[in-house]
Amino acid sequence: MTGRPASSAEVAREATRIAASGAGIEDRAAELLGLVRRVVPYEAAWIALVDDPARRYAELAGTGYGERVRDYLGTPELLDQVELVGLSSSPVPQRGRDSPVPLAELPVWGDYYLPDGYREGMAVGLFTADRRHLGVMVMSTDTPDHPTDAERDVVAALAPGSPPPSTRCGRCRCWPGLSATRGRASCWPAAAVPGRCPACPDTRCSCRARRC
């Protein structure tokens, strides 16, 4: 981790670079987790996509969590809890203290995070441009002091469901995404790639999938 937290502008620029790289989606996911650690001093983090037929999350990248926690994150029970707290319908980052459900009622906290020494954390629902739930990014800290409000707000800029207004199409207000996943075009986690939108007749989309 660097000596100072990354600014929103730095994070946005680096996220755009990751989005535009030719690396595979797993490598980009791992790089995104590294970028987020410049914002939030987490002890562990994990990012995954929804596996619809199995009704679970399929890991793209992870760091810090032990095997027991990591295995649980890939179960249908975790997806149930994501839905329960609203992360499958909203891209707004949610810390433990922000949860609309008491943490004692969430097994991922009571049975896994807390026994492993994690005291706070944050989860972010990931979405396609048309607001379909795509996946989740979670991170855990060993102190209740993080993530701070400022750290949460910087991470919020990475959520494709609510990018900064300046990155959206000036005409239709959509936001370009960046990759194809699981065989279909979608906008994947990172700040929106500046560009124009195919929904507008005289503009073009900057995402690789050629759609927003």
Name of the CATH superfamily: GAF domain
The first-level CATH class is given as Alpha Beta
Give a short account of the largest sheet: 5 strands, antiparallel
Runs in which pLDDT lies below 50 for 5 or more consecutive residues are: 161-212
Structural class designation: alpha+beta
Proportion of strand residues: 15-25%
CATH topology: Beta-Lactamase
**Helical run tally:** 6
End-to-end distance: 33 Å
Question: Which shape, going by the Cα principal axes?
Answer: globular
CA radius of gyration is 17 Å
Number of strands: 7
Compute the number of structural domains: 1
SSE string, helix = H, strand = E? HHEEHHEHEEHEE
Kindly state the mean pLDDT as a whole number?
77
Can you walk through the features of this model?
This protein is α+β, with helices and mostly antiparallel strands. The protein has one domain (8-167): Beta-Lactamase. It is built from six helices and seven strands; from the N terminus they run ααββααβαββαββ. The protein has helices spanning 8-20, 25-37, 67-73, 76-84, 107-113, 149-156; strands spanning 44-51, 56-63, 94-95, 120-127, 133-141, 179-181, 184-186. A five-stranded antiparallel sheet has the order 2-1-5-4-3. It has a two-stranded antiparallel ribbon with strand order 6-7. A hairpin with a 4-residue loop joins strand 1 and strand 2. Helix 1 (8-20) packs antiparallel against helix 2. The longest helix has 13 residues, at 8-20. The radius of gyration is 17 Å and the shape is globular. The two termini are 33 Å apart.
